[in-house]
Amino acid sequence: MEIELPQIAAFLVSWLSMTAGIWALFERAETVITDSTKATISRWLLALSIDANDKMAKTFPLLMERLYGAKLVSLRSFAISTAISCFSVVICTSLWAALHPQEGFAFLMSDGWIIGIGALFFAALIVNALPDYISLIQSRLILRRLEKTNTSVATIGLVALDFALTTTIIVGTVALFGTILIDFSVQDTVKEIRAGFNLTTTPNETVSWGVFFYTTYTTSAWLWIYIVTGVGIRVLVRSSRILAVLQHSLDFKKKPVRALGFVSMIVVTLIYTTIACTFVL
After folding, report:
1. 7, 129, 174, 211: most buried, per Cβ within 10 A?
2. Residue 57: its pLDDT value, please?
3. Which backbone phi and psi does 193 adopt, to 5 degrees?
4. Alpha-carbon distance 45 to 61, whole Å?
5. Distance in angstroms (rounded) separating the CA atoms of residues 253 and 136
6. How does pLDDT run across 230-280, given as a tens digit for each residue?
C-alpha cells in the first residue's frame, strides 16, 4: 500500500490529539482531587495496600465528580461533555482519514477544508451532544455502583455493562437518525451500523458513522485506560528493579494521577503503533 503525506499527517493528528487529550484530562484530575484520594491511588499503584477499600476503580468516580461536578445533570457537565465530544470527533475523523484516505479526504476536500471541518463539528453537535451526555450519565451511575463493589468479578461485570449500555445508545442513535430523519430501511440502518464500527462508508453516506460512534465511548474508554494502566503498573512494581526505575522517573507518591496519565499515553502510543503497522503501513 502506497503511503502519502496527507495520510501520515492525519494519523499523526489523531495520535497527537488522543495523547494530548489524555494528558489534559489526567493533569486536570491531578489538580482537583483531594490528598486522601491521591494517597489511596498511590498506595494501590505501589502495591502497598491490601485493604479492600483501597480499590483502583473506586477512585475513578471521585475524579469524575471533580471534573463534571457532583450533580449528574447540570449545564456545566453538559457543556464539558459536548466539548469533549467535539474534540473526540477530531480524533476519530483523523483516524478515519488515515485508515481510509480516499473516503476521508474526499469528504473533507469536497467543499474545502474549512467547510468540511465545520460540517463535521455541526454534525457532531446534532448527532453526538445528547447521546454522549446520556452515555456520560449512565456511566456515572454505574461508577457510583462501582464504588460499592469489593470483588474483581463485580468490577469487570460493571465495566462490561457500561460498554453494553453505551453500545446500545450508539445503535439507538443511528436507528433514530436513520429510520426517522433520513428514512433508511431497517436493512440500510444495519449496514450503516456495521460500516460505522469498521470506520467505513456506504453508498448512502459521505462520512463514516464511526466518526460519531466512537466519540460516545469517550467516558468508558477513559475508565478502561485508567483501570488497565493502573493494573499494569501494579503488576510491574512487583519487580524491585522496575519499581526503582518507575519511582525515579515518575512521582507516584505525590502525583499518582499525572503518572497514570503519562503511562496511559505510552499505552495509547503502542496501540496506535499496532494500528499503523497493521492497517496503514
Report:
1. 211
2. 60
3. -65, -45
4. 17
5. 30
6. 777 777 766 666 666 666 667 777 888 888 888 889 889 999 999 888 876
- How do residues 99-118 score in pLDDT, each as one tens digit? 888 877 777 676 666 666 77
Look up residue 277 and give its three cell numbers: 503497522
For CA atoms 18, 20, 21, 25, give the dihedral sign. positive
d(CA 173, CA 167): 10
Number of domains in the chain: 1
Select from 215, 197, 209 the least CA-distant residue to 132. 215
Cβ atoms of 213 and 196 closer than 8 Å: yes
CB atoms within 10 A of CB 206: 12
Q: CA torsion sign, 227 to 73 to 173 to 138?
A: positive
Given a contact cutoff of 8 angstroms between Cβ atoms, the answer to whether 39 and 254 are in contact is no
H-helix segments, 69-100: 75-99
26: containing domain: 5-280
Sign of dihedral through CA atoms 200, 205, 208, 213?
A: negative
Question: In angstroms, rounded to a whole number, what is the distance separating the alpha carbons of residues 29 and 65?
Answer: 10
Do 105 and 6 form a contact (C-beta atoms < 8 A)?
A: yes
Cell 495496600, located at residue: 49
pTM, full prediction: 0.80
The x, y and z cell numbers of residue 109, run together, are 476536500
